[in-house]
Amino acid sequence: MKLERMIELIEKNGFEEVIKSKKGMGIFEGREVLHFQKNSSRYLSPEVIQLGVSPADKEDVLPVFTKNVPQKLRDDIYNLMKNLSAELEHSALNPACL
């Protein structure tokens, strides 16, 4: 659910998924990597967002952004992650709430 909402938010902001890799490197070691890119101008570097997704838990997502990704979009993604985590803590799906 978290991953789908993040992808929807990223795509609404004009990014396209350009690469899906099953084998991450560095901080993405052992994760599937989704690579999104937006070419805002031919003179500037593209805006890039990468999501490292744990194969064991699709809700365990690690986002990485290039510097030129707007701060508002970064904040929206972090808030989405934080709010969904809080919702799950208090939901009936959480064994601690049973």
Describe the structure in your own words.
The protein contains 2 helices and 4 strands. With 98 residues, it is of the alpha+beta class. It has a single domain (2-90), classed as TATA-Binding Protein (2-Layer Sandwich), CATH 3.30.310. The protein is globular, with a radius of gyration of 15 Å.
List the helices and strands and how they pair.
Elements: H1 2-12, E1 16-21, E2 32-38, E3 47-53, E4 61-65, H2 71-89
Antiparallel strand pairs: 1-2, 2-3, 3-4
List keywords for this structure.
98 residues, alpha+beta, TATA-Binding Protein, 4-stranded antiparallel β-sheet, disordered C terminus
N-to-C terminal Cα separation, in Å?
21 Å
What's the number of extended β-strand segments? 4
Number of helices: 2
Q: The biggest beta sheet, please? A: 4 strands, antiparallel
Indicate the mean pLDDT: 84
Strand-and-helix sequence, N→C?
A: HEEEEH
The rough form would be described as globular
Helix content: 25-40%
Strand content is 25-35%
Derived structural class: alpha+beta
Rg over CA atoms: 15 Å
In total, the number of domains comes to 1
By CATH reckoning, the class would read Alpha Beta
- Corresponding CATH architecture: 2-Layer Sandwich
By oligomeric state, this entry counts as single chain
CATH fold group: TATA-Binding Protein
Low-confidence stretches: 91-98
Strand order of the largest sheet: 1-2-3-4
Summarize the structure.
By secondary structure, the chain is of the alpha+beta class.
